[in-house]
Recover the amino acids of this structure.
């Protein structure tokens, strides 16, 4: 009997140890594989793999209009950057801490490197029940999305991490505007490199480190004209001046040059340009502008004296000063409007 009792005790101890080991293993598994930190790690892995669709499927990530407002983010924020092509590089992902805040909430912090920038992001995660009894499930209690409030000056185009967009496609405004502001949703975390570059404009690359969920990050890029833009603008201005020169009058309509004579003219005036005025381009309030620019149009015409009827050939340059505006049209061309500089 004593021997049987000892065997029973031994098996009871062994059973207790096995059960304890099982619970310990389950606890470690839940912490390291199924815990809140691992849940955030899965989301970060999707970003690292440039799987935007997979990241958006994780519970608590996406935000509808009402949720945007509730989170303090601009309503109507575009989701155009929530795609693979716009995702930044993410490396060195490391779980820093997982703090149980009680009531099923966890504060989870991960560190990362992105485009040569180091950062840490803290996410708020909540319990979402269990599956296969004892395995916890989670959801983001606060979405990991953020918003970039982007001002694009002097252009409608911009790129984010190499992915190109036009502000008109985000705002629904068909006409090109010289000052544009758009709100775009982005994933946290990551370093987003934004610039405005096309054949006609270029800007510096502006980095923004998005490391805090549900925050509005302010960014501004300012485009400057390229050599191609200056060449296209000069060509358009030259065409405008040529069109003015075709008018057989002393004061061509809608043109920056002309002349007044006291006598009568005989025959048609002939305007021409030996050299076109070389323009420069500056940013105005609503468009690119041509600052005051001096030039000379050549005029040939016979002038008949009102005093004695004699005819004298007029063959000389007529100096003028002009200003203008330049617009990039939807077909990719540059249009110029020029007029006389009345302040000259």
């Amino acid at each position: 009997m004593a021997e049987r009792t000892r065997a029973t005790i031994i098996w009871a101890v062994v059973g207790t140890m096995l059960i304890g080991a099982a619970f310990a293993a389950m606890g470690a598994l839940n912490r390291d594989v199924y815990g809140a930190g691992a849940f955030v790690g899965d989301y970060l892995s999707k970003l690292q793999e440039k799987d935007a669709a997979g990241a958006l499927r994780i519970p608590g990530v996406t935000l509808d209009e009402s949720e945007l407002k509730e989170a303090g983010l601009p309503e109507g924020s575009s989701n155009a950057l929530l795609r693979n092509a716009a995702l930044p590089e993410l490396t060195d992902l490391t779980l820093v801490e997982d703090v149980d805040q009680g009531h099923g909430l966890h504060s989870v912090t991960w560190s990362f490197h992105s485009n040569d920038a180091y950062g840490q992001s803290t996410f708020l995660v909540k319990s979402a029940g269990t599956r296969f009894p004892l395995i916890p499930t989670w959801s983001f209690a606060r979405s990991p999305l953020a918003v970039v409030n982007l001002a694009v000056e002097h252009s409608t185009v911009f790129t984010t991490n190499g992915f190109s967009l036009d502000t008109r496609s985000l705002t629904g405004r068909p006409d090109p505007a010289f000052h544009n502001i758009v709100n775009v949703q982005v994933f946290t975390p990551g370093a987003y490199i934004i610039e405005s570059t096309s054949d006609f404009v270029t800007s510096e690359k502006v980095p923004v480190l998005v490391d805090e969920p549900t925050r509005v990050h302010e960014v501004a890029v300012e485009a400057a004209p390229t050599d191609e833009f200056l060449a296209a603008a000069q060509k358009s201005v030259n065409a405008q001046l040529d069109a003015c020169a075709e008018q057989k009058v002393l004061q061509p309509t809608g043109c920056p040059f002309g002349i007044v004579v006291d006598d009568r003219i005989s025959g048609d005036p002939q305007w021409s340009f030996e050299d076109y005025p070389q323009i420069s381009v500056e940013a105005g309030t609503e468009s690119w502008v041509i600052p005051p620019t001096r030039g000379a149009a050549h005029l040939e015409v016979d002038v008949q004296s009102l005093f004695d009827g004699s005819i004298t050939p007029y063959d000389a340059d007529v100096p003028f000063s002009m200003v203008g505006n330049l617009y990039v049209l939807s077909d990719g061309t540059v249009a110029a409007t020029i007029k006389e500089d009345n302040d000259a």
